[in-house]
């Protein structure tokens, strides 16, 4: 199955979202027709899928995500917030009290805290 391509999510003619209407088994060639729900994670770009995988493997540790991406903590956090937004799971991007707790615990630097708080004001 590794030689399979990701299915397109948009119509090449009108750009509307495509729906899945047929499934088939590569082993016995059984085919099932109908209208099937889309997988919101399957529609993510390869880059977003990799970011989500790193986040899950690190059990939600953004420091590990930061190290994997080779970017600053605020950048890693923003990329993850952008991913949440694309999935429709976004809430407030930055909570000032969380930023202050991270700063007090030494998880982020003063510069990183300032960057996060400034981003929230925009």
Summarize the structure.
With 122 residues, the protein is mainly alpha-helical. The chain has a domain at 46-121. The chain has 5 helices and 2 strands.
**DSSP strand count:** 2
Fraction of residues in helix: 40-55%
**What do the pLDDT scores average to?**
84
How many strands, which pairing sense, and closed or not: the largest β-sheet? Answer: 2 strands, antiparallel
Summed up, the helix count is: 5
Within the largest sheet, what's the order of strands? 1-2
Alpha-carbon distance between the two ends: 45 Å
Detailed description of the structure:
The chain is mostly helical and 122 residues long. It has a domain at 46-121. 45% of the residues lie in helices and 9% in strands. It is built from five helices and two strands; from the N terminus they run E-E-H-H-H-H-H. It has a two-stranded antiparallel ribbon with strand order 1-2. A hairpin with a 6-residue loop joins strand 1 and strand 2 (31-36). Helix 2 packs across helix 3 and helix 4 packs antiparallel against helix 5 (110-121). The longest helix is centred in the middle third of the chain and has 14 residues, at 73-86. The radius of gyration is 19 Å and the shape is elongated.
